[in-house]
């Protein structure tokens, strides 16, 4: 069996994880016999907890083996794993685990989802300011094995306050006898434990950090967020924006159509009812349609085009909101969308006016369609930028104002505009 | 002025950049007098070249000052900056620059966009296998100042082949007298220079790397890609997927509505012509609508709902394609979307059948609407998953099959389905 272990440990922990996940449940039982909890923990540190059935994996193991493994994982990853389990299982594993590890995990478990606290880890390297570079390096050699990242070393005073930071790069190039206090940077960029994970991601992206310290509201050091976790956050947020725009959870793991249908139907049915208002509205104009059936021909063209324009406007607005621009710039954005709507509406309206005029030899009809197009696009652009902003102000995620919602709403306004304009010319159509 | 420099260099280079960009052109002229090209280069390394008018900024500077600054920047960033300029300006700066730097930049400039080569940098630390840990550390101290990242050290033989890698963490914990050859990892995960940047991002994300070596097709070391560049790639790809879904470039910098309209109109007008087909199609049924104007009432409800379902399906398909799944899983996806379409279509169709039946006291009409809804949703789901797959097979970016395109196309199929079914019951409607 030595040979298997030799080959297995030639692999990177990520590859070990891929191998492990590809095994059958019976084969994994074999593996548990050959790997120590610590070795399995290294592998588990590389698994995307949210995309795998970790609950099932842990249940396959002997409970104390699983608890041991969890205690050897980096605390942030252990917490992510435990967050996939039932509360009673979490309590069970924590009770079997050695108290020290259980305590560290419990300290992190209670942080709210999507905050810095929920993604930080406590395995960082902290030193005192009044030691030399040499002694710090000696300490680092000891601490390296247990730390998630050793390339930033944090300087903390006796009371736990974060007072400085030094990169390993600076540590290496400085003189052995220099005092940390003299070579550290006292201006530390840190994030608060309750900060939104998206803000943490923005900070790390702007500053090109590999890790950022997390402090409480009194600037006491609590942990660090590392860049690999931030990449997961960026992926998550991108998927959530994308899902929002489409009105569907694109991360849905299940290939199971029944499950997929169940997740998509709430939106479809909700929007069906909104669509019913549009139908009711058209119903009010049924007499007009009956007299001038040509009007029916252009309903979907007008609603469709306005919906497309509204979707464009929505996407730009949601994106801008994600970039945290201030109120003034947002009023500018809405004004800009209004003008963009008028310009695109004018050009699209003129185009359709000419086409309809020539096609149907009827420029009055062309004018009605073109005019309706102009107004409908302008309103759709306005709605596409205003609605996500209002949702943001009201504390909702603006990405929830999905494309389907905007197009369905824009159907309603477009139909209203179209038939209102057509009614003005009613005498003309009905003769 | 010493005071200004003191305050200025207290700032992180990212903050220096923000400060610099906020200055007026005249104020920046002052700054150029107080900062050396090297100091400005550190600041420029932190600027997002694609989001700023770097052409303008460089033109403000004395040409030789600008060329000096470019030569002090990390090569990948200098290349990104030069890629924003006209070819003749690039040639000009390269000719003023000292030949060594110009050569390094030219080596990177010719790599195709969106490949590993286009985002890599050449400032990495390379050592030989037959030296001791101690001598490697001594070399590292020298090299640290010029390297973009020193936390992975690459082992390269005389011919330039990549033969190993060792992390600074391992270097530190190993014995001073150990030979690099004995402590390095010989199994190096690397990417090829022509690899797509998205694949490079996937590798770095999976392995949680801070940097990955880039080699040519003979495994000769060419450079490294660092995690900060990968974060930019992930952002870029996410923005491009999001833009695709909305049929608009959400990265459009300009707040200028005229500019925005110009970028959005091509899609809108193209889709307007596709929408014209739908109008023409309805035109064929004008006689039917004229007799049974109630049919017009439900056009937008059916096209809208099917469009929403198609958008959901599209988003799921594009996302799966981005994850590079194999052909078999894709056929499964299309089958799954078909079944999902039938299930959601059945439930939505039944709902609307009951509503219309009760509302209009007319269950035959309800049946027609419900049946049309079922078929239209199924077809939209199928189109939403099939079309991006076909585009991918034909070598186009599947994300270009935007939501607006799918909804507009789905308008056409939905109308066709709706009126075909209604025609079958024509005798009933016309009586």
UniProtKB/TrEMBL annotation, chains A, B:
GO terms of molecular function: magnesium ion transmembrane transporter activity; metal ion binding
Matching PROSITE patterns: CBS
TM region(s), chain numbering: 265-282, 294-318, 330-359, 365-391, 412-430
Family annotation (CDD domains): CBS_pair_Mg_transporter
Membrane-topology annotation of the record: Multi-pass membrane protein
InterPro entries per UniProt: CBS_dom, CBS_dom_sf, Mg_transptr_MgtE_intracell_dom, MgtE_N_sf, MgtE_transporter, SLC41_membr_dom, SLC41_membr_dom_sf
Keyword annotations: Cell membrane, Magnesium, Membrane, Metal-binding, Transmembrane, Transmembrane helix, Transport
GO cellular component: plasma membrane
Localization terms from the record: Cell membrane; Membrane
Family of the protein in this entry: Belongs to the SLC41A transporter family.
The protein's assembly and partners: Homodimer.
Entry function: Acts as a magnesium transporter.
UniProt name for this protein: Magnesium transporter MgtE
Taxonomic path: Bacteria, Bacillati, Bacillota, Bacilli, Lactobacillales
Gene name per UniProt: mgtE
């Amino acid at each position: 069996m030595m040979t298997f272990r030799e080959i297995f440990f030639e692999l990177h922990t990520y590859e070990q994880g891929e191998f492990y996940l590809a095994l059958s449940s019976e084969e994994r039982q074999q593996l548990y016999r050959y790997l120590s909890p610590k070795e399995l923990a290294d592998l588990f540190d590389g698994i995307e907890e949210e995309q795998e059935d970790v609950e099932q994996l842990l249940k396959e193991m002997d409970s104390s083996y699983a608890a041991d493994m969890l205690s050897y994982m980096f605390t942030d990853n252990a917490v992510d794993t435990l967050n996939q389990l039932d509360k009673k299982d979490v309590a069970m594993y924590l009770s079997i685990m050695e108290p020290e590890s259980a305590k560290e995990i419990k300290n992190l478990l209670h942080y709210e989802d999507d905050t810095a606290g929920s993604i930080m880890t406590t395995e960082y390297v902290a030193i005192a300011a009044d030691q030399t570079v040499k002694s710090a390096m000696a300490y680092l050699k000891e601490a390296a094995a247990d730390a998630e990242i050793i390339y930033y070393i944090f300087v903390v005073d006796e009371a736990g306050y974060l007072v400085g930071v030094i990169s390993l790069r600076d540590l290496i190039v400085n003189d052995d006898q220099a005092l940390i206090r003299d070579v550290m940077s006292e201006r530390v960029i840190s994030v608060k434990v309750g900060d939104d994970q998206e803000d943490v991601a923005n900070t790390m992206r702007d500053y090109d950090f590999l890790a950022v310290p997390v402090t409480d509201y009194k600037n006491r050091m609590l942990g660090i967020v590392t860049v690999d976790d931030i990449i997961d956050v960026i992926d998550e947020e991108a998927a959530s924006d994308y899902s929002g725009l489409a009105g569907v959870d694109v991360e849905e793991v299940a290939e199971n159509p029944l499950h997929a249908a169940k997740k998509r139907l709430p939106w479809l049915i909700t929007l069906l009812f909104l669509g019913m208002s549009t139908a009711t509205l058209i119903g009010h104009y049924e007499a007009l349609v009956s007299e001038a059936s040509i009007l029916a021909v252009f309903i979907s063209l007008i609603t469709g085009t306005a919906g497309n324009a509204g979707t464009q406007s929505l996407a730009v607005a949601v994106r801008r909101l994600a970039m945290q621009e201030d109120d003034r710039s947002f009023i500018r954005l809405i004004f800009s969308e209004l003008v963009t709507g008028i310009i695109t509406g004018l050009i699209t309206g003129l185009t359709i006016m000419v086409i309809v005029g020539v096609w149907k030899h009827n420029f009055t009809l062309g004018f009605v369609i073109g005019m309706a197009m102009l107004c409908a696009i302008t309103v759709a652009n306005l709605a596409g930028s205003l609605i996500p902003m209002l949702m943001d102000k009201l504390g909702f995620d603006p990405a929830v104002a999905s494309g389907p919602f905007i197009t369905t709403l824009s159907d309603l306004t477009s139909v209203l505009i179209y038939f209102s304009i057509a009614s003005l010319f009613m005498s003309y159509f009905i003769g």
